[in-house]
Amino acid sequence: MIDVLYFAWVRERIGESRERLETRAVTVAELVAELVARDAAHAAAFADLTGLRVALDQQLASFDAPLAGVREVAFFPPMTGG
Amino acid sequence: MSVRVQSAAFDFAAEAGAFAQGLPGVGAIVTFTGIVRDQAPGGLRAMQIEHYPGMTESAIAAMVAQATTRWRLADCLVIHRIGELAPQAPIMMVATAAAHRAEAFEAAEFLMDYLKSRAPFWKKEITASGAEWVAAKVEDQDALSRW
Lengths: 82, 147
What we know:
The structure holds two protein chains of two kinds. By secondary structure, chain A is an alpha+beta fold. Chain A is built from three helices and five strands; from the N terminus they run E-H-E-H-H-E-E-E.
């Protein structure tokens, strides 16, 4: 099982802030493909990956990063703090 | 070294005063305070700041740790607010203390640049015509390359 978290407009587009799911994905990109196949809301949120960032267990990562051992994946737009 | 992520307002003058206490060998203190700019088209009613609890604190702690290895800092302070903020309210502040001003200024700028695009905060502007997520600026991303 893996926890998937969404923030900012990604959260709004999907309509959930987190979900727990079973996945066979080996990489983040494969997980995204599984999520996109679920419904239109997920497909809309992941339509343009260049506008998205991903963190694995709260560390920024890339979309080709492996998921082995990862418990928490978060998707969000580029950060706008400060 | 102190990092605070909070919904409560803070008084930057009081924070700066408290920060400046008990710093032997320090010749320079730099403080920066970010304010909610009230210039959204249509007039800003509020700014909402979302964050990623857990990652926010660890990401800022990592930036502070990096700053302390690059510059000889006697102390540093980062405060960042979350939740709903009124126009002109302080959003965040950074304070750095060092023996000399160059180190204090550089470390403060470094922390600011990293807070802008590497700490998981997202701003949403609430205006009379609706709500809109603030888009990240390319300049803010590019600013990291100087470090």
